[in-house]
């Protein structure tokens, strides 16, 4: 278990260093204790709740869900399981890059899908389809077969697209061309990796070897947001997480996010949220 600021980061790689994907059945008896404290995950997490009820928090949102349902969590989000009863779920975790060239280039709303946290499964046909895919993934994972990893990737791809159909994002096939898609994926990955130290569009454009104008036009065309808006949103969301979950004060968070000083951080935060960091933290208690 590592830490990001004051929030621990859970990783299955401590037990399986070379694995980019894991799947297991969880119930009341084998829920890891480390999932019961606020944490982040090293990769993406998807769980198909087959039986029982779960409650918890992801980032700033509480949830209470009864089976059947699909639960999502992305690496940056803070996850906290607070209660469960009579549960049985198929728990899937995979690295950031595991499906980068598959489902992430197929779904135009990857971030939206994972931000939904919980998607109830109200139709028996949908539940059967999801359970079938998950069971096939589990079977493939547990056996030694030729091209096992390729089969798992394709089954997981199908599972995620099926789950996305049930959500509120109205996920569609991406309409961007190959060049736009490559730029978008490179930009998102770079922002994930460097948003603490690099805050200007030109810095990311240099790393992608295109002009700032071309980067901004492409991002705006595909997402409806400017590149600068996406960078700023990343920093604001991280600031909110640290204020809500962490043990750091506003001055320490300003330093962690590489603001010049806490006064500049206060102005930046208020501009984007309408309230000061201190007020946000107080309202979160």
Please provide a written account of the structure.
By secondary structure, the protein is α+β, with helices and mostly antiparallel strands. The protein contains eleven helices and nine strands. The chain has helices at residues 103-106, 110-115, 124-142, 148-166, 178-194, 201-208, 212-223, 227-245, 250-256, 262-273, 277-284, and strands spanning 2-4, 7-10, 21-27, 40-41, 44-58, 61-66, 69-73, 79-94, 118-120. Strands 3, 5, 6, 7, 8 and 9 form a six-stranded antiparallel beta sheet that branches. The radius of gyration is 20 Å and the shape is globular. 30% of the residues are buried. The mean pLDDT is 87.
Please tag this protein with its features.
six-stranded antiparallel sheet; alpha+beta; 9 strands; globular; 285 residues; three-stranded mixed sheet
Question: Quick gist of this model?
Answer:
The chain is an alpha+beta fold and 285 residues long.
Largest sheet: 6 strands, antiparallel
Distance between the termini: 26 Å
Q: Helix share of residues? A: 40-55%
Which structural class do you get from the secondary structure elements? alpha+beta
Shape descriptor: globular
Oligomer: single chain
Low-confidence stretches: none
Task: Specify Rg, calculated over alpha carbons.
Answer: 20 Å
The total beta strand count reads 9
Mean pLDDT: 87
**What is the beta-strand fraction?**
15-25%
List the helices and strands and how they pair.
Blueprint: E1 2-4, E2 7-10, E3 21-27, E4 40-41, E5 44-58, E6 61-66, E7 69-73, E8 79-94, H1 103-106, H2 110-115, E9 118-120, H3 124-142, H4 148-166, H5 178-194, H6 201-208, H7 212-223, H8 227-245, H9 250-256, H10 262-273, H11 277-284
Parallel strand pairs: 2-4
Antiparallel strand pairs: 1-2, 3-8, 5-6, 5-7, 5-8, 7-9
């Amino acid at each position: 278990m590592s830490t990001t600021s004051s929030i621990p980061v859970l990783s299955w790689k401590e037990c399986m260093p070379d694995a980019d994907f894991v799947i297991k059945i969880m119930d009341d008896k084998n829920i890891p204790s480390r999932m019961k404290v606020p944490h982040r995950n090293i990769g993406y997490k998807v769980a198909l709740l087959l039986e029982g009820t779960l409650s918890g928090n992801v980032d700033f949102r509480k949830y209470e869900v009864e089976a059947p349902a699909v639960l999502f969590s992305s690496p940056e989000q803070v996850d906290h399981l607070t209660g469960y009863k009579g549960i049985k779920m198929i728990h899937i975790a995979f690295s950031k890059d595991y499906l980068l060239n598959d489902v992430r280039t197929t779904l135009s709303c990857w971030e939206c899908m994972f931000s939904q946290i919980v998607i109830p499964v109200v139709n028996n046909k949908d539940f059967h389809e999801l359970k079938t895919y998950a069971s096939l993934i589990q079977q493939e994972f547990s056996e030694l077969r030729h091209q096992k990893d390729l089969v798992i990737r394709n089954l997981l791809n199908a599972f995620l697209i099926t789950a996305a159909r049930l959500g509120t994002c109205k996920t569609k096939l991406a309409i961007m061309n190959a060049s736009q898609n490559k730029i978008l994926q490179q930009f998102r990955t770079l922002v994930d990796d460097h948003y603490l130290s690099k805050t200007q569009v030109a810095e990311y454009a240099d790393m992608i070897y295109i002009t700032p104008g071309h980067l901004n036009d492409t991002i705006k065309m595909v997402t409806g947001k400017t590149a600068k808006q996406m960078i700023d949103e990343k920093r604001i969301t991280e600031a909110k997480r640290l204020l809500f979950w962490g043990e750091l004060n506003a001055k320490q968070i300003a330093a962690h996010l590489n603001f010049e000083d806490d006064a500049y951080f206060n102005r930046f935060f208020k501009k984007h949220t309408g309230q000061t960091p201190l007020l946000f933290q107080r309202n979160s208690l």
